[in-house]
Amino acid sequence: MDLLRHLRHFVVVAHELHFGRAAEVLGMAQPPLSQSVQRLERELTVELFDRSRRQVRLTTAGELLLGEAEELLAGEGRLRNLMVQVRAGELGVLRAGVPPETPAATLRALLASLATRAPGLDVELHELTTGEQVRMLGERALDVGLVHHPVTADGLRFGTPVDVPLGVLLPRTSPLARGREVTLGALAGLDLVAAPRATAPGWHDRLLAVCRQQGYRPARVRPARNPEFLFGLVLAGGAVAVEPAMVARREPRIAWRPIAGAPLARRTSAAWPERSAHPAASMFGQLAAEVLADAEPVVPAPAEMSVPAVRPWPVLFDTTG
């Protein structure tokens, strides 16, 4: 017996107190409606309506059932709506990975977008490298992540990619900072500071391949996971890094200059399991792409402003000698 359907029929008749009008409200013929109410009465072994008079009236059992039935049907509606939200990824917990170097402004914008789009969704952010995210996505220990391409892994689906132009990070006192852009070949003899290969193998290999093609073979590749450590190695002299412009915002003694010909861009996208994906994974990927695409680039300072007349910090790379 479809109890909820019969209760729904009963509630409409109870409000209309007329089987003909109730049938019109329900969009059905009167005989099936009468049969539905009679079946409910047989199931509950009570009479719900007093049909002895010309006007249909609720019995005591009918009056008591009406309130309970309305509450039950309202609960069913809430339950169905709740499940719709779960299927749409608007409720539940989403375990998401983001690269360690993700700027605070980007994280704030992404979380704000998620809160607006799915206020009932609980987002657990984890600071993870691309390599760690790919492994955890494969193990189903993560629902979605932001990864740096190229990524070679089976069983993953990727969201819209965003390409962020890269430039050279170097001390503001470096002669190379006086120009509007830098060629990779001009970096010959300098070390390259980069994230360890294990963090994003595909991207690490591509970075070195492009550098070699452009005439830059780093004297050494010096690993740095933490941005502060990266800045320290660059400011110590003899090393540069290739990063997005926004990284330079964290350290006033660091200059960012675009690479001539723009041969390098960091491609980032969301990734999630291809099968049995979290309902909110694709939404996370879409919002992440929008946030990354809207990130404001740092405009390089004019050449004459590269070396300030008064330096509020120690000179770590003096070119006057």
Radius of gyration: 32 Å
Report the sheet-strand fraction: 15-25%
Largest sheet: 10 strands, mixed
> How many β-strand stretches?
12
Q: Number of domains in the coordinates?
A: 3
CATH superfamily of the largest domain: Periplasmic binding protein-like II
Count helical runs: 9
Distance between the termini: 94 Å
Write the layout of secondary structure elements.
Layout: H1 3-16, H2 19-26, H3 30-44, E1 49-50, E2 57-58, H4 60-87, E3 91-98, H5 104-117, E4 120-127, H6 130-138, E5 144-148, E6 156-158, E7 162-171, E8 191-194, H7 201-213, E9 221-223, H8 227-235, E10 239-244, E11 254-258, E12 265-273, H9 281-294
Parallel strand pairs: 3-4, 3-5, 8-9, 8-10
Antiparallel strand pairs: 1-2, 5-12, 6-12, 7-10, 7-11, 7-12
Helix pairs in contact: 1-2, 1-3, 1-4, 5-9
In short, what is this structure?
The protein has 321 residues and is α/β, with parallel strands linked by helices. It is built from nine helices and twelve strands.
